[in-house]
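User: Predict the complex with adenosine-5'-triphosphate.
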Amino acid sequence: MANQEEIFKKVVSHAKEYGFIFPSSEIYDGLGAVYDYGQLGTELKNNIKQYWWKAMVQLHENIVGIDSAIFMHPKIWKASGHVDAFNDPLIDNRDSKKRYRADVLIEDHIAKIEEKINKECEKAHKRFGDAFDRQQFVSTNQRVMEHQKQIDEIHARYADCMNRNDLDGLKQLILDLGIVCPISGTRNWTDVRQFNLMFATKMGSVIDDSDTLYLRPETAQGIFVNFLNVQKSGRMKIPFGIAQIGKAFRNEIVARQFIFRMREFEQMEMQFFVRPGTELDWFKHWKEERLQWHLSLGIPAEKYRYHDHEKLAHYANAATDIEFQFPFGFKELEGIHSRTDFDLSRHSQFSGKKLQYFDSELNESYTPYVIETSIGLDRTFLAIFSHALDDEQLDDGSVRTVLRLPAVLAPYKAAVLPLVKKDGLPEKAREIMDMLKYHYMVQYDEKDAIGRRYRRQDAIGTPLCITVDNDTLQNNSVTLRDRDTMQQERIPIDNLFMYLHNHIKPMMLK
Ligand code: ATP
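Assistant: Here is the predicted structure with adenosine-5'-triphosphate placed in the model:
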């Protein structure tokens, strides 16, 4: 396929054209970084949720799931640190009146220098062919070394400013690097200010300062504040986990890249409570297990990488991201954090309630340590959808658009197609629909030539087409067409259930 930008455009337009994702409030010209899931997008999203829920809750005896409210007591966000520190540094360009994240401007500048290094490497690779050794080249080539030195210097200043919350320093760095606004092309920047990402609202009819509520910026806190409720009512023994899927809201300063960065999105989070001192072993465990979950979807391993954090949040003693190669490069898909006892301790302190666990094996009480796995549902959708979309060149020179979704996630598992709209074939096809429809999402389609109907199903990712023809009436068999191979085979209707079951079985069970 074409270049990355074109691929991404195709992903966005395909998602809209086939009813997966629409811009929110589109007839009113949309709302920034808010999207609606359409009829097929909702199915795909629900299937992703279920795939995660099964892997985390159903397959682990020591993990249970909850669904906490979006509104929570305002003190929760004081205790969690979000009121004081859930900020991004923003900067405005006075000429274009556009707003940017200061950290992102600097990171983009660094990425441009990295791009120069990559170009040098590509050139050298072409020149030296198979003998090219990237490691050796980048550590000896003068130009590359200069670029790298520049990057290291910028990094050091940038990290220092971020750590010290030095906003003037960040602005100075932007000026010193000569970063211009991509719209106006000028360096007419305002000062850098901290911007809190939480949406505030009011509860009740009496409005004063005390009833400011926040839309939750993460689902995790709903788990922490229910730690004791779940532990006691579920008689949970450490180590155990609490999982949750739900909406989160962040007033992102720059929201672009489609559903990668939204202002209203969904997270799938799990907090795993462990004995203090065992947290780094559990961190390693979850880091591996979560990657295995991604790989079980059948997407090649080279599309994923770990990014271990060097600069840790003050409460964490280990953190990594699982990054995915989106059409716009490797970016965070999931975070795995060892959060120590920070959250439970803070909630104990702010609520005055003791949030501890009595460990009968050790005969002592302690505040459990926590490993968090936190994945964005919409980002997972984008990862799976963008990887699945393919313009396949066929032998006859034509191109077919096929959405190679993992069968377990596909909105429709099968389409039932009478070859022609007469001779009793539609009636027979309806019988098959009735047999399958309670158990599987299946679609009936009798319009247009069979080839066009196959293509329509390819474009929405339906793994199997079941075609009913005249022979079906004679011998009760149907033709099954496979989306990926386009191979057809004949099977008795009596075997359909078993066939579908085997074809759609989650990869984590195969
Ligand atoms: P980023 O650095 O990309 O802003 P983050 O480190 O702030 O992400 P976390 O707070 O760790 O993200 O949230 C956990 C997960 O939630 C992320 O890995 C991502 O998949 C998802 N997520 C976070 N912010 C957004 C958003 N604005 N839109 C969609 N998904 C998001």
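The longest strand covers residues 264-274.
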